[in-house]
## 1
Amino acid sequence: MINIEDEYKELMSEILYKGSEKKDRTGTGTKSVFGRTIRHNMDLGFPMLTSKKISFKAVRTELLWILQGRTDLKYLEDNGVKYWRPDYERSGRTDETLGPVYGKQWRDFNGVDQLYKLIDAIRYDSNSRRMMVSAWNVSELSDMVLPPCHYGFQVYVNNGVMDLMWQQRSADVFLGLPYDIAMYGLLLEMLAKGSNLIPGQLIGQLGDCHLYNNHLDQAKEYLSRSRRVMPSLKLHDGLSISYDSRVCIPDAKDIELIKYNPLPAIKAPLSVGN
């Protein structure tokens, strides 16, 4: 079985020791590789890194924010998620939103509630090869604080098991990618739970995979550590559609991470915009 932390470490090591030097829009500079796939068998546990601590509250908050179709900073910051503020301030916006980003597109892509259609298809047409959601709305990219880094996902159902594959154009491997992994792991769990399916494989297809030059020492520290047993997830309700055709989204209090015992966090500076 494939453990995503092993895959993550392998990717980080490849970038650190074999990656190409590249300039980037933040001015920090990176080492990068292109076009990599990472996988995780959900039987092995919930995909939160254990060789360094990451915040499950931040993972849960951002996913619920997206699922609700929100784009405001207030919800995020009221729940302790403040890393979007620098990109917002850089953008010149004054409305305290991030523009028509992830949640807007998942729930209202040119008038289409993609999340509703996805859940409906899982329930009534699970052999479909069209069970996809996209955040890459070309007509609205210029209005976004930052174009989507993870820009789409697809689910696959077979013999009572659901797999999920997400696509990502840009992966900040040290800081951002661990949160993306956990967020899509949580989404897979929610979709499967709401449809009475078993979570199977989580798959990430990554474009530009990079380490910022001011994260290289932290990457070496991370690679020197051994991983621990992955936690599990306690989820009372999944994503479903109600009798009156509303998407039902679990409350934060009903989403609980169990037995998460990671090694300490490794601090690293945030590079604004990628």
## 2
Amino acid sequence: MKLKHNKKRNTAFLYEALVKELTKAIVNKDIEKKNALVSMLKENFSTGKVLQKELELIKTLSETKKVDMFTAERLLSESVSRYSRLDADEIFGAQSRLIENINKNFGKEVYSNFVPNYKHLATIWQLFTQNTSVKEKVLLEKALVFSMTAKGKEPVKAKQMPHVDKLVFKTVIENFNKSYDGELLSEQKELLNNYIVSFGANEVEFKVYLNEELGRLKDEVSLLKEKEVMLENKDLANKLDDVRAALDKLQTKKINPAMLEKVMQVQKLVKECAE
């Protein structure tokens, strides 16, 4: 089943494409472009903005995995119901302004950025916004319910956490300390702190921080490879190549505790090599 899909009118695609562009700007150390992209993301996707409300509903369906049939159908029904209460004209106007600003400031190549789950986002967009026939609507709903109930590699992660205070943060730190059998490094604590305080708020700032930290680690790895001891030890040099490859993969991974633990492992390894 194929339905016409205009990706520029898919809010989730626009968001993911901008995040990809932001990642490239950080990697290329283009500070001016990075700041402009962060400003654009905040302006359009901050809490309370209509595009942020739409994006959250899309994410509810796109990121939910391995739930039971009843839960999947309830999530789908409630998401469709809430979407119907959003102002379609307000969404269209906000999208139009965003598209115009993207074209003016960054160019149409932004829309060429690879978004891994693009087809899935298109299915959700079609269900939310298309005047589909009864048959098409049922088939779209069936596909989404299947995607939410099908078994995958990743376990289900809670989408939200309750209010996070200092006590909760202390507990998380202690748990990681036990896992690592010692005190956390300052950069590991900073990573955890930024992650925890991002709950319930806009995630843009944390993504910016995380991309910058991954970029810093890449630079550290490059500097380590130039050291004389590394040039003389091929095994260590090869391990650093593996670390660099792992960092590249991490930039495309979904942000969750498992991903953060991998970042923390790299932070520890880089620190030990540097010393």
## 3
Amino acid sequence: MTRRCHMKKFCFKSILSLGGVLVALTVASSVEAASHVVVEGDSMFSIAEQYGVDPYQLAEANTMDINGLILPGQTLEVPGIFQEMTSATSQVSTSKSSEYVVQEGDSFYGIVDTFSLDLNEFLTQNQLSIGETIHPGQILTLRQTLWTQSADTSGSSYYLPGYEYEPGINYPVGQCTWGVQKVAPWAGDWWGDAASWGANAARDGFRTGTTPEVGAIISWNDGNLGHVAYVSAVNELGQIQVLEANYHGQQWVDNFRGWFYPTDTAGEITYIYNN
């Protein structure tokens, strides 16, 4: 017998009790910040760009204001360059799985946001790609994996204190950099603030340029923190569509803008290509 649900637009075909436990042994790195001796002409922004870190996090690490005075000979801690110390860490995951029937108006982003799923895991589990279309009546697997650390909690050496992180993503949850690495896992583990991504990607050997391509990352360098997004579509008019996070403070991944001209967003544009 077929059952229909009328709660909003979401309907479960059935709930499958497929909970499981997975134990993984990983190697974690503790964080030990390097130091920088201020020279004539230095600023928080120039030092942050030199090391590929967020200038505001640099200021916070040194208990200073972003526009505070720094003097030649002064030593600053740089929370983006690390001395790695490895230690064994045990992680335990519990997975819950169910089936979902696609409803009219559904999208990948709406489904993963509603059920608090990881977009990349969701696509992999259903053997889908980001550009595919889903149709009403299609059955999708929803499997949520919850990770907890049972030993050393030092985590990745890229993690900064006071911020929330997801396993495997090295940028704070909700930031535009976090959103791009969720969609494009090949993005560098620590390319600093969004404005620095173009320069740091080129430093790491990635091809960069000014031509939009589907699958590329776009970085806007506005002289401040900048913004990054993942290019999901390009048309003959030079307009693009992107997947992004922290657009106007909306701290989840979605296509917020539809078609738009990339120059509508302030800043020098660099595209980063997955070689």
## 4
Amino acid sequence: MLSHLSKTITTTASPQALFGMIGDPYTFFSALGHVWIWGVFDRSNRSLKPYLKAADPDTMRRAGVLVLGIEEKGGKYHTTEVEIEGPSISGSGLMYRVRSLDERVLLTITTQIRQKEEQINELSVTLEASYVLDWKSLFLSPIFGGKIDLDAFLNHLVEDHIRDYIKGNLEPKSSASSRGVIEPVVFTIDDIKNVLGDLEKISKGINKGLISISGNDFVLVLEIEGGTIKDSLYRDEQGEVWGEEAIKRASTKTGRVRIRVYNVSVTDILIRLSR
């Protein structure tokens, strides 16, 4: 069984606030309301464990529980253990995959942020859910015995959870309160090479701002204007370089990086971030 849903949420929440929500899996799945994260994938023995017990935790693969069902539909639920992958870069947005350990349930969530007009933004959410049944589970599964509709479930995730979270937690109380405020969005990607190949796609979602990518011994700062990279700065212990050479130098690095997104576009902030 396959279900597909695309929805657009128009909001006064800033792109930084929206990206902060979808870029942090703990915040995003808390907003989603039906996925509980309890651990990570341990690369040392290829198992799911609580984070502190994992010898080699893979923070891009997490352990969780998915609850299928709608609160107002009589309390019929189906729970299943899942592995959560992401966030990964997809076009100009981010994507998560939620797969049950028995491989019968797959939920894919893709998000994109666009600026519609001044202080009005759009969050596009695309969800795809599939559920594989054998003849026995067709009659016994709460998904069908409890009359849980996957189409209605996906709509419930967006309309009753994500939209409510944005309205209650991310939208400013007044438009004036958000003006002139620098709101950095911070998230972590396990390998810088997963970011550098998609810099143009990431930049398309930013009208004016900065992207700072920092590793253990370097920082790369990109100035974005009109969705394109206007300038870049790379700095490490050997000094600093600007322009195309900055990105080339960063491409020689490996490992986990922290990404910061700023809603400003001034050269002195570029230098300040690199220190």
